[in-house]
Every structure is written in structure tokens, then in C-alpha cells.
Amino acid sequence: MKPDPARYVHGTDAPWDEFQVVGKPHRKVDGLAKATGEAVYADDIQLPGMLHAKTLRSPHPHARIRSVDTARAEALEGVHAVITGADLPTKYGVIPWTPDENALATDLVRFIGDEVAAVAAVDEDTANRALELIDVDYELLHAYLEPEESLERHDPAIHPDNKKGNISKHVELSFGEVDEALERAEAGELTLIEDDYTFHGTTHAPIEPHCAVARYSPDGLLTLWSSTQITHYVHRTLSAVLGLDPAKIRVVQPCLGGAFGGKSDPFSLEFCVALLAMRTGRPVKMLWTREEVFYAHRGRHPMKMHYKTAADAEGRVHAVDAKILIDGGSYSSFGLVTTYYSGQLLTGPYDFPAYRFDSTRVFTNKPPCGPKRGHGSVQPRFAFEVQLDEVAEAVGVDPIEIRRKNFQGEETETVNGQRITSNGFLECLARVEEASGWRERRGKLERGRGLGVAGSMYISGTNYPVYPNDMPQAGIQLKVDRSGVVTIFTGGNDIGQGSNSMVAYLVAEELGMDVAHVRVVAADTDLCPVDLGAYSSRVTFMVGNAAIDAARKLRAQIVEAVAEAWEVEPARVRLVGGRAIDLSDSERSIPTREAFQIAEVRFDTLGSTGSYNTPTLGGDYRGGTIGASPAYSFTAHVVEAVVDEETGRITVENCWIAHDCGRAINPMLVAGQMEGSAYMGIAEALMEEQEVNRFGLHRGPSLLDYTIPTSFDTPELHALIVESVDPEGPYGAKEAGEGPLHPSIPAISNAVYDAVGVRLRHLPFTPGRVLKELRAARESRAGESP
Amino acid sequence: MLRLPEFTLTRPESLDAALALLKEHGDAALPIAGGTDLVPNMKHGLFEPKMVVSLADVPELHGVEETADGGLRIGAMTTLASLAVHESVQRYPVLAQAASLIAGPQLREVGTLGGNVMLDTRCQWYNQTYFWRKALGYCLKKDGTECHVVKGGKKCVAAASNDTAPALMSLGAVLELAGPEGAREVTIDEFYVADGIVNRDVRQGELLVAVRIPAPAAGHRSAYGKLRTRGSIDFPLLGVACSFDLDAAGVIANADLVVTALQARPTRARKAIALLEGADTSGEGFEAVIAAVAAAARKQCHPLPNIPGDHEYRREMVPVYVTRTLRAALDEGGPVHHI
Q1: Are B46 and B191 found together in one domain?
Q2: B135/A59 CB distance under 8 A
Q3: Are residues B174 and B280 in the same domain?
Q4: Which of A505, A166, A209 is closest to A332 using CA atoms?
Q5: What is the distance in angstroms between the Cα of A768 and the nearest Cα belonging to chain B?
Q6: Residue B131 falls inside a structural domain
Q7: Is B138 within a domain?
Q8: CA distance A55 to A59
């Protein structure tokens, strides 16, 4: 049984009348270390006697391995060990229901870049030379490069054990009377908009490539340092695949250079360095090249989407019906969840009286897709928000107004049974409307320049841990030092989003301390209580609540001890500004350090723990908990775009981002997340594309060919923070790292429509595609006019 | 990260010493200037020199000076950043503009004019890692027998991707080369050949010493236009160099129009040039001339699917960039670039 959720709700108010730390633009706790180069990333780790490992990868998109002969490689001087799939036969997957990956291929290779063997040698060059000496005999198989083919054909199967052929997951859910509304539309009582939309593949492109270092001690303890955003799942999966007692494994996440969802699966290199360290008795490091990061992928799923929306003459949506084909690439990864998310996360901020989705994820012989910032919901959001603009046009309602009209409200439930608590979407709309000059400018700008709006919602963590259990989702431990320092031990993964800073701010707030006196030890399974990891935008909400939980227990002890020492009522003792003060006697105050010492005398060694677990949420149907979150963030964007009708190039000049993050614990970091999210969305819309060519080869696995925007290409990003103060978030906070990506893509399409009257329904919006659409529009106009 | 192959680095301190090293080591040696192209190409296994001869300390390759006839002599080691802002270079807008748009700011601080003139051709089937090319089965340009751009093609069509090449062609530049057989001069027009494997008439052991440009006419007008995905870093998807002299009456003489990033050699748009020659820019008919020039350039220019991206789109952009670059030259503006 899950404990009473009320236990985890700490209220939204400042602990001491007004916030001392929260709401202020504090520096990140690791900011200086990163800026000066002092921060230690996985590749900075050098251990005595350390070997370097490299991976042999498949040059074929789909093939059966007849044999692997490593003898010549093993004979090369400087080579310490060579491993193949036979050494790591246990299958795994981040979702326990779909274990279809091997650290190294055992029988089939499923894309160009799939891992086949690994070598540990004295240096990287020797390891690379050894790869050339491994002889693999392949039997080539038909390669599936188009998802439609995987729907139709199952022989050869990409995963022969899969009961559904080349279909990875199919979800069909229906809520309310969808067919009834569609029939009314057919009868002319409602307006129906129906169209196809395409979302292409994109990848995360974190600046730090994946890297892992393993050490196997003589006492049988395996330590793995890895650039992961899910330490706990890596810990569990290592144990399962290596057949080691989890008590013999320690996983540490060093400073991490960007992840965006691309480091939330267990990866081949983690198992390989671990086994190679065990085999050789020496530490082993593997650092992937940029090319290998593109093969590891786990990026945004390409989706082909068909949407129908039925609405009345006022623009009220009556029903939405979606059919989605998802290209999963070669493995399941988070694909089960992706398939649900493609439908489950669309049911806000608008009220859908009826909703149905039918999503099918298929396997193809391409790098595996997975979770990327806005997992599973960025693609449907693009389709729906463009379609909603089409509805607005059809019924003659302003695009912002139609979004207001369909607003679902606060403290409500979605059509698919998700609980909505706080909801600041209306304020988001008002802020972008005001800031962009929407009323004066939209529809009235010179040809070629336009404004477009879009909205969205996203989860603040997911109710459902990837493996079912009733233990807390997040834990925190606090240790108090006589020097006046409090150390926070958190399993949370700081991937640059600032979660280590966030817990420091919250503990400093609760204990009335200077943030500089709070230290954070994070993401080390030997030292820190479990947290499930940095995914689903769960960390601020869940780890934040756990931090307050722990700090509040400690605070009570300190206040009680000081009150006793001063012989006053506890209510008179306040911790503020690094001191304990007596509210009724301004002469009486002591530094926090002394207060700690008084409390240590009274309670013995000080420390506390705190936890967070989600309340029971979700719809009462199969899959009803997937997409259930304790709180949802809401976003609205207005984009100002300019279209060059001769070149087809879209320039986004401005993007106004209004995001309801509940409460901005650090507004500077929230604004950074909002800007970074919008940047990433705009990049996907205009420039980025992860695609393979006719041979199944990644088109250009480099940062020269996979174009991410430079500073020149980045529009003015205006972050407008909206604070709805969620009843269950830490001081009311919700997520800010993923939601603000969603609307940027459809808002560009909608702005282009305002600019030049062309609807862009197929991503990416390359200049060539825009020109084609412009030409088609001209031809159709010419055809209409006499 | 990708590893460099093992090599010895030498740093000769005179042109003679550099030439002697190149002669001694033959095919095993390669010169390096800024290295912004050679180093990634070496990491991709496209070149595996046993010796890399740095030209950084060769004094004869440095310096920009005005020549007796009023022209300019630019040492091959002149960085692209300094070239773009050099006072004397501003008399040739097309060159200053082309240099200002090569790669990104950091790369221009290191990359040199000589390196850009000598740039290897580029292709989506070639500028890839060793693993990638091996999985492909290689290509005609390197280690393979098949061209993946033109099915059944027997001639490599990797694209000239150096922005300074069309600019210098439009200015009638002459290259000063030095080699084991002594010094020679060659016009840049003759230097580039239509072979993507090596599109330069460069002989064994030769170095580019300097680039000479004749004096500009009083009414010299020129501009450069560059199409690329991003506002920085990227190689051209299309480059247009336009140069002509304008007399007092506004009539065009000595017109030149060179388009690059299409095929192995920059393309001189001859029919378009003929239409431009003698055109009166002050008259009402000039708009029609521009349209005809753009159409003629489009007809002659055939981008191939060699470099990444949509080659049909690149072709569509030929008349647009020719028109814009021509106008920019006339208005003493430019460069034509989307940022």
C-alpha cells in the first residue's frame, strides 16, 4: 500500500513568512566549477592502470551473425580483453516489460552501428586497431527503412521473439462519444477538420558524448562512473545483466554535459566497461565518438499522424480522433511509454468531450528512438495545435480566443481520467498575447511576416515508476556538521538542469541558511538514497518535495533545541539569514552553527531523511496510469516569423514563451529552461533531422551535417514566467524543462500561415519544402481564379 | 573522439626547407596551414600522411602587399579573418565578403587563404568517418570504385566548396606556386579542373606561395552570395561571385559570374556573362537583363546530389542568388547571406 499522499504535501507557503532564497536568481551550485573547467566529467576520470575500450559496430542494417572470431584481435600486442555478445547474453530494456536489447549483439544486428564486440587495450589506437582484426561473418537480411513496410511485413522479423511481428506496441483508447460527434460533423452540424501531419526524427545532440569508466576492486566491488541520467536503473540493470549482487555494484554519475533524454537508457558501453574491468582486473574507460552518439540515438520518434477535430460554430471542440504511426527504430527503449504518451498527453489544456487515439509503434532497421525532451507528446502536440488553428480559421475565431474557449479549467479531470490541479494556461495566453502585441499585429502585418500561437501541457513526473513498487520515488538524506554546513545526499541526477542547486535552495530556505553553506552529494548509489532519475520532468517536483520533507524534520529539532536552550516557546525561534533569532527579543540571536551545536547536544548526531511518493492517480483502465502526473505544467507561445518567399527560408525573429511552472524556485534557471526548450523546438522545426539514407546509413553523423542552430540562428527568446502555485508541488513548483518546448513548433507553422497563407503540416520546415508549399498554393489560387 | 593517425610534425622555417621536406618524403608528406580542413579529414581517414609539414613558420608565405601595378599580393598563410578585414582587400568586395563567410569566427582565425584555395572537394559520400565509408563500401573518390552521386558515374563529382575560389576567379587572380622544379605561375581559372578526386592542377611537392590579384578598375563592383543552412560554420550549398566594371554612364564591362558548390570545379556562367556585358544599368531595360542573366545561370548550373541537402532546391536558388548578388554588387552592398 502506498502511504497517505498528504504526508508529502508541505504547503505552498514560505517556511518563515517570506521567502529568503526561493524566487531569487541564485547562481548554480556548480556554476563556477563548470565555467572554470574544474568540474569533473566522466572523461576527466583517469585511474592508475586504466585501459581504453572501443566498440565494434555492425556495418549492415539487418543481418544475422554467423560467427565472430576474435583470435586475431586478442593476439594483438596491447590488447587485454575482447568480449562479444556471447559474454553478455542477458537481454535488458529500460522498460522491464520489453527487454529486447543486448549489450553486444548475440545473433542479429538491427541497424548500422549496432554493437557487436568490445575491446580493452592499453590505449585507444590499439583498441581501434584490434577492432579491425575481429572477423564477423554476416548473413544479410532484408532491411526495413520505412515504417509502413514494418506494418505489412513480418518476415524477416526484426525481433523474432516478438509476438506481434515488427509491431513494437499498439494502443487504442477511446473516451466519450467520438463517433457520435463525427457523425454530427458529417451531417453538417459540426465543423470537421481532417488532415495528415508528419513529424521527422531528431536527436538530442548533447555536447558531452556518452562515457563510462569501470573499476573492479579485488574485494569484488564494481564501481561504474557513467554519464547517465538514471543512476538507479543503470544499477539495477547492471546487476541483472552481469549477474552480480546489486550490493556489489556502485554507480556514480559525474558532472554531466547535457542529456535531454538521450542518456536515460542503460547503454552498451556501461555493460562493456564493467565486464572488461572484471575480466582484466584493471579500470576501463570507454568514450563514444560523436558518430557513436548519433547511432546510440534514442531521440524523437518520427510520427505520421492523421487527425480529425470536430468543433461547433463557436469553436468549441467536441471530439478529437487520431491515428498515429510511430517509427521506433530497432529496439523498444521507452517505446511502450512513447506509444501511450502519443495519445495520453494531449488532453489538456483544452477540454475534449470525446477523444480517441490509435497509435502503433513499429520496428525499423534504424538507430533506436527513445525519449527526447517532451517525450512522445511533442509530435501530436504539433499536429493538434496546427489543426486547432485550422478549426479557428474555419469557424472564424481568433486563434488565441479559440484556445481560451476550450480551456479545461483548474482542479478538474481530463477526458482520459487524469487529475489536473493548478492550471495557469489562461494567464500564459494573456501574457503572450500582450507581449507580442497580438491584437494589434496578428493578421495585419506586411506579407511575409506573421504571428502564430500554440499551447501545451506536460507532466511533472510520472506516477508510475518503470518497475512497479511502492517505495518512495525520491529520497533525501541530510547530514549536519558542527561547522554550520548541511550536506544533502540525493539520488537525483543533475544533468545541467540544476537539480543539485534546486535542493540546495530548498534546504537553505527551510533552515534559514546561506546557500553557500549547503553542499550537495548526488547520484552516487553508495552514498545517496534512491531517486528514479532525471526523466519525465520529475526531479523538481519529487526530489524537491523530498528535500522539504527532510529539512522540515531537521528544522523542528533545531527549533526545539534552541527554544529549550533559550527557555522560550518554539514559535519564538526563527531560522533566518544564517542565524537563529528570538522573535520577541531582538538582542537574542546566534549563528546557525551554534544552533546546530545546541541541537546536537539535545538530540545527538543530527540528520534526517525525507521522501516523496506520488498519490494514487490515473484512469481506471489498462494504461490509465501512463501519463498520470501529480501536476501538469502549461505553456503558450507566440512566434513571430518572417518568410522569404523567394528562398523559402523561415526566420523566427521572436518567440514569446509563457510557462506555468507553479512557482519559480530560481527564476533565472526557469527562464533558462524555457529559453533552452524553445531553442530546441525551433531547431527541430527548421534545421535538425535524424535520418538514414537508402543504405540505412545515418545521413551525416556529425555536428557539421546534423545542423543545430548557432547563436546567429537563435531568435530573441522572451521568457514570461507564470506561477499558478500548485497545491502539491514544493512551495507550489512544477516542471519547467520540457513543457516549454512543445508549442514552439506548431506556433511556427501557425505564424507562417499568418505570414504567407500556407499551412505547414509536414516537418521539418526546410526552405525547399516551404517553396514547394508556396508554389502549390500559388497554383491552386491560379486554378481557382477565372 | 575520433583519433588522428600517427604522424611526425615538422616546422620548417623557410620555403626552401619546406619544399625540401616535401620532396624528400613525397606522397608520405602533406603540408598543413590552418588545418581546419586537413585535421578533420585525417580523423576521417581520408588522408594518412606520415609527415605533416607545418607552414606556420615559413616567412615567404606570410604578408599582404600592394604590387607595383596597383594590384594585391596575398601570402598563402594569410588568415581568413585578417583577409576579410584587411584594408587593401576591401577594394575587392567579393573577396573580402567571401572570406568573411567561410566557416565560423574561430575557424577563420586559424584557416588561411591558401588552405581555402587548396580545399579538398566535398561530398556526402566522402566526408564521413572510416567506419561509415567502410559500411558503404567506399566511393569513387577514395578507396572505392563506385560513385553514389551519379549511378554508374565514372568521374568523381565531389563539389568545389571553397568560397574564395569563385571570388578569385571573378577577379582574374594568378597563383604563385613553388615546387621541386622551381616556381611557376598559373591563372586560377586554369588551376581548377573538373575532377572531383583532385580538382587542382597541383604537382607533386608544390606549395601555394601567394595569390596575386590585378588592380581593380575605377568602377569595379563585386559581391559574393552564399547559401547555407546556418548563419555560420557551414560550407556553401551554393556560392555566387559577381564582378564587373561600371563606367560613368552605368554600362557594364568586364563582367564575370562564377557559381560554386555545384560540381568539382566552380562554374563560369558564360551565357549569363554575355548578357551582362555591355548592359546599361541605368536604363529601364536592366530589370529584364537581370531576369535573363538569372535564367541563363539557372540553365547552365546543375547542382548534383553530392553535398548534403536538397539539390533541386540548390538549383532553384541559382537564379535567386545570382539576382541578389548582382544587385548587391551594383549597389555596392553585400554579402548576400540570409543573416
Answers
A1: no
A2: yes
A3: no
A4: A166
A5: 5
A6: no
A7: no
A8: 12
Same domain, A229 and A132: yes
**Which string of b and e fits A475-485 if b means at least 16 CB within 10 Å?**
bbbbbbeeebb
* A59 near B CB under 8 A: yes
To the nearest 5 percent, what fractions of chain B are helix, strand and coil? Answer: 35, 25, 45
Examine the domain organization and report whether B3 and B90 are in the same domain: no
Residue from B204, B276, B269, B272 nearest B239 by CA: B269
Q: Show which of A612, A639, A659 is a domain's final residue.
A: A612
A339 located within any domain: no
Q: In angstroms, what separates the C-alpha of A511 from chain B's closest C-alpha?
A: 45
Report the CATH number that the domain containing residue A46 is assigned in CATH. 3.90.1170.50
Distance CA B319, CA B296 (A): 8
Identify whether residues A406 and A433 lie together within a single domain: yes
Per-residue pLDDT of chain B (339 residues; tens, 9 = 90+): 899 999 999 999 999 999 999 999 999 999 999 999 999 999 999 999 999 999 999 999 999 999 999 999 999 999 999 999 999 999 999 999 999 999 999 999 999 999 999 999 999 999 999 999 999 999 999 999 999 999 888 999 999 999 999 999 999 999 999 999 999 999 999 999 999 999 999 999 999 999 999 999 999 999 999 999 999 999 999 999 999 999 999 999 999 999 999 999 999 999 999 999 999 999 899 999 999 999 999 999 999 999 998 999 999 999 999 999 999 999 999 999 998
pTM to 2 decimals? 0.97
List pLDDT tens digits, range A610-620: 999 999 999 99
Q: What is the ipTM of this complex?
A: 0.97
- Residues A700, A654 within the same domain: yes
Q: How many CB atoms lie within 10 A of CB A135?
A: 12
Query: Are A718 and A648 part of one and the same domain?
Result: yes
- B312 interfaces chain A, CB cutoff of 8 Å: yes
Structural domain harbouring B166: 59-119+159-213
Q: Can you give the residue range of the structural domain that contains A742?
A: 373-459+623-784
Partner B, chain A 643-672, Cβ-Cβ below 8 Å = 644, 646-649, 651
The size of the A-B interface in CB pairs under 8 A is 79
Chain A residues near residue B310 by CB distance under 8 angstroms? 766, 768
Min CA distance, B1 vs chain A (Å)? 4
Domain tally, chain A = 3
Any residues with CB less than 8 A from the CB of A400 and at least 6 apart, and which?
A429, A432, A433, A438, A453
Mutate to test the interface with A, among B230, B307, B320, B326 (most CBs of A within 10 A): B230
